Amino acid sequence: MNSPILRSPSLKTAPTLSFYKLGCSKGGRKLFKDVDCTLEAGKWLYITGANGVGKTSLLRMLCGLAPTEFGEISWNGTPIHAQRESYQRDLCYLGHLNALQESMTVSENLRFMTALGGSQVDKDQIDEVLLRFGVGGRSQQLVRHLSQGQKRRVALARLALSPARLWVLDEPFVAMDEAGIKMLADLIADHLGAGGLTVLTSHQQVPIGCIPAQILELHR
Amino acid sequence: MKQQASEKVGLTAVLLATLRREVSLAMRQKGEVLTPLVFFVVIASLFPLGVGPESALLLRMAPGVLWVSALLAAMLSLQRLFATDYADGSLEQMALSSTPLGLLVAAKALSHFLLSGLPLVLMAPVLGLQFGLDSRSLGILMLSLLLGTPTLSLIGSIGAALTLGVRGAGVLLSLLVLPLYIPVLIFGAGAVEADAAGLGANGHLSLLAALLVLSLFFAPLATTAALRISLE
Lengths: 220, 232
Known about the structure:
The structure holds two protein chains of two kinds.
Chain A lengths: L15 E11 L2 E12 L3 E5 L6 H9 L6 E6 L2 E2 L4 H6 L1 E4 L11 H11 L2 E2 L2 H10 L15 H14 L4 E5 L7 H16 L3 E5 L12 E4 L3
Parallel strand pairs in A: 3-9, 3-10, 6-8, 8-9
Antiparallel strand pairs in A: 1-2, 1-4, 4-5
Helix pairs in contact in A: 3-5, 4-5
Chain B lengths: L6 E2 L2 H18 L1 H22 L3 H22 L3 H9 L1 H6 L5 H30 L4 H28 L6 H28 L5 H30 L1
Helix pairs in contact in B: 1-6, 2-3, 2-6, 3-6, 3-7, 3-8, 6-7, 6-9, 7-8, 7-9, 8-9
C-alpha cells in the first residue's frame, strides 16, 4: 500500500465475499439455514426477509461480531477467522446504533472512528464529507445537539471517510429523508463503481444507481 | 474522495487516539473524576471520627484504612468503563477495528488509572497526615498506591466487561471484583506496615509490581473474551 495508485480499490485484486451453508439459531430456535452467496467486486447484496428472520444476525456474522455456528464465510477465498485483522481493515459496519459518543463533537467522533479503522483524516476531508451529507458546518457541534436524522447522517459520513472495500449496512435508510436516501444511494453507487462491495438490509427498495441488486431472501 | 481518505496510521496512533478520547471525555464530565476522589476523602476521614482521636490506634490503622478507601473509590467509576461505549455502539466498532481489541482495552484501563487511580495517589499523603503518618511512611504509601492502583483498574476492567448490560451491574461488579483485589490490598497496606516495623518495604513493593505485570498481561485477554461474549 505504499504507492498512492494502489490505494484505489479497483486496481487491487478484485475482492470477493462468499459464504457457504450459513445457518443461525437464537435461543434454541432455528432462524435460517443453508444460505449460500458469492458477491464480487462492484456488486451489492440486498438481504430481505420478514421481521425476526435473522437479517441482523446474518450481518453480524458476516462482520465476525457473532460466531458462525454453521457454514463458512470467506473473504478473497480465505475464511475470515483465519485473517481477522486484514478482513477487518477491509470492512466497515454500520449497525442500528450510530456509534457516536454524545458528549464529543462531530469531528472528534469521526476522527476517532477513522483512527479505529486504521486511517487518518484531516479537517478539510471531514468538512467536505459533512457538506456532502447535508450537515456541513457542524463539525464542532456536540453530537448530543443534533437531531436523530443528523446523527444518522454523521454516522454515514464515516463510510465516505473509510478506505474499507466491504460495507455492511444494517437498515441504512432508516431515519433518513428523501434527499438523504438519494445521497446515500449515490454514495453506495460510487463505492461500487470504485470496485467496492456492499451488503445491506432494508425494508424499502432503493435503487443504487443503475446497478442491479443481488437479492438474498431469508426464510425459515 | 475515498482515495485521499486512506492515509494509514500505526498502532500507537490508534492507542493514543483512544487514550485522548477517554481523557477528554472525562474532562467534560468532571463529576466523574471528582466523585471517586471525594469519596476517598470522605471514607478515609470517617474513620478518625468513628474510632476516636487515639493517635496510636489511628497510626496503626492508617495504611489499611487508606488502602481500603482507595480500593472502594477506584471501584466506583469502573461500571462506566465500557457502559456508554456499549450503549452507543462504539464498543462494537472497537471490536471490529483492525487494532487488536486487547490493546484498546488496555488503553481504556490505563485511562481509568490516570483518571481515578492517579488522583488517589496524589491525595493519599494529605489524608495520611490526618492519621499522623510520618513522611517516610507517606512516601511508601504513595509508592504502593502507584504500583497497586493500575492493577485495580486492570482487574476491574474484567469485572466491568463481565457485567456489561446486566441489570444491577454495580453490586455484581463489586462482588466479582473485590475478592480479586485482596492480594493488592494485602501487599499494599503491608508495605507501609512492614516499613514502619523496620522490615523494609521492598518485598511487598516487588510483589505489587509482579501483580501489576501479571494483570497487565492477563487482564486485557480476559476482558476481551468477556466483551466479545457481551457483544454477540
